[in-house]
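Table S2 (continued). Query chain:
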Amino acid sequence: MTTRGNTRSDRPRRVLSALLALTASAATLALTGPAAAAPSDPSDPIALAPPISWGPCPKSEPPMPDPNPQTECATVRVPVDWSKPNGPKTGIFVARLRAADPSRRIGVLLSNPGGPGAPGADDALEAGMPGRSTYTPEMLQRFDVVGFDPRGTQHSQDARCDESIAGEHTARPRDAAAFERMRATNARLAASCLRLTGPLAAHMDTESVARDMDAIRAALGERRISYLGHSYGTLLGERYARLFPGRLRALALDSVVDPARPDAERFLTDSSTTVEAAFERLAAWCRTAAACPLKDRDLSGVAADLFARADAGTLRVPGPEGPTETAADADGLSAFLTFLAWQWDPERATRQLAAVHSGRGEVYWPDYQGPGRDMQLVLCRDHDLRIRDFAEYRAIRERVAKAAPHVRVSTQALDIVLGCQGWTVPPKAPPARVRGDLPPVLVANAALDLRTPVPGARRMAQSFPKATLLTPDVVGHWVYALDPGTKAAVDAYLTDPRG
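Corresponding output:
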């Protein structure tokens, strides 16, 4: 999942080399151009949807640059609770950049950059802006790029919670009493979100956002759309496909959230073993790289020694003059190793690892941040990550540590799991699949993506009758921006799904 916050400056812009592995059948679709007619769908609300009233887009807060002046913005009204379509409404902020070449226009490309909690309208607001747009000029000529802020985020009635309660959170419970205090804190947080945000706080799940996407499609007057989702946005695309299979022209999913709703243990294991694989790759680099300050040491042994010292209470955060007075416990060490793996800068990572081992040097030691309210409001509704009690939690942690012995646990995954304990808005069952043929899908995921591990991408591809899975051998998240080969493959598919 993407954890880029609420500013456009967080968007990834990295590019690495290509190595694609094709593991499923080539995708084919029937509709590719503006002249293709979609079959009639009597349940389609398009005839009832009021047309969008477009206007200028809001200016950005300094120092952020203003949006592309050619974009236009609007608000689409949708039910807070889709099971009560005539009930209270909320507004979904939408932005559009029209296709630069109307004579070659294919249609609408709806997108979501991830999150939960990221301002998805930025995909359109930044489209075509040098240094900020992920889209090539060819894509901007062929598609109307449409982005939206999901309900409860940014311009779509940003959800509010009492953050003072979050400060009471127990970072990592060490006993049954601390585990129950953490649950009680999460329950109070959930209650504050409902109090300050209103009923919307209980309806920020992925199914509700997918239904909002169809309301946007209908308001645009489009029978079918193409969709490109990144990170958490992939789950939105999967839900949309199952709810409205006949309304998709093309579906591309990049850096994939597991659609199989894993329980807490599998959620932790998949993420932690991916961090472990990144550590093993770092160790392999260090064995042959002259720039590695630990070249003469086995990194597996270094990690084992650090965890032994952390468990014994003798490991300290290093400083320029030597060890500081700040204790470095095992969970803090796991957070440090997870951070190093995410960055994937081998020389810097091993230099920092050497500093922790020796006790002397400048390092970034992550502070506990927690999962963030958007994660709790969305993911605790989408996934059932509840753990029965502290004894079960401790047993899960032990099994995960055996599966990932050099890092023990993925910090981001653990934050999410712990954030859902005691959350009083219960998980929502996934929607039943609407009858109809699921569209072919193009799925792409870095082989070592620490935020959305590749097993989830494999399960996503397996859940569609026709799928293409690309797994370039790179480390990182948002492979569409990381790997030129993947970007070219996704763009080619979206432009002509028939291949």
